Amino acid sequence: MSADLRALLGEVDAVLLDFDGPVCSIFAGYLAPEVTAEMVDVLRRRGVNVSPELASEPDPLEVLRRTGATGDQGATRAVEDALCAAEVRAAETAEPTPYGREVIVAAWQSAMPVAVVSNNSAGAVTAYLVGHRLHGYVSPVVGRAYAEPARMKPNPEPILRAVRVLCQPPSRCVLVGDSLSDIEGAHAAGVRVIGYANRPPKVKAFRTAGADMVITDMSDLARALLSASEEMP
To answer: How high is the pLDDT of residue 230?
Structure first.
């Protein structure tokens, strides 16, 4: 595995990280169902008829996505604002992913720029990075487009935005993500992709989806990057 990872890393010049998963668990302390309940309450206060299915949805991003699909821009902006505020609060109690920090620092040490490309808000990502003294190692931070959930991954747009800022060809970048939307978005953007399977069922799913590599522990990536940095002249 480490040899394969080192070989893949030898073919790229930049690392793009998804946020919630590879870097941290953003809703570890401020639970996602609490956030979705707040978002649903925002919709109800606006007089929106909320279906039982949406009311019981545990994923805040899915509530935003489904609201956006209705075409009600006012409602979409309202739940976007609620989610942005909740994510910034959640960043204060987010649980760091083991070896997520080491991956970022090791990439920086190997002269490989690191970007974060997330479906979470850029404000929440930046708050976390600042709070954990990582902001100096990461640039750019590309969060979701405001109140336009259709532009979230798997849409390749945010990935390509990061690639353009880094001034790299897509084929010389690798995205590390923990969801099928990351893998699909990476393929659409033309970047390499490492699937971080933080739950056992994801291993087969990521391989079937065509991830270039699947890891189950971020320490594998950290060690491969550290090895690359030690081999630098």
So the answer is: 64
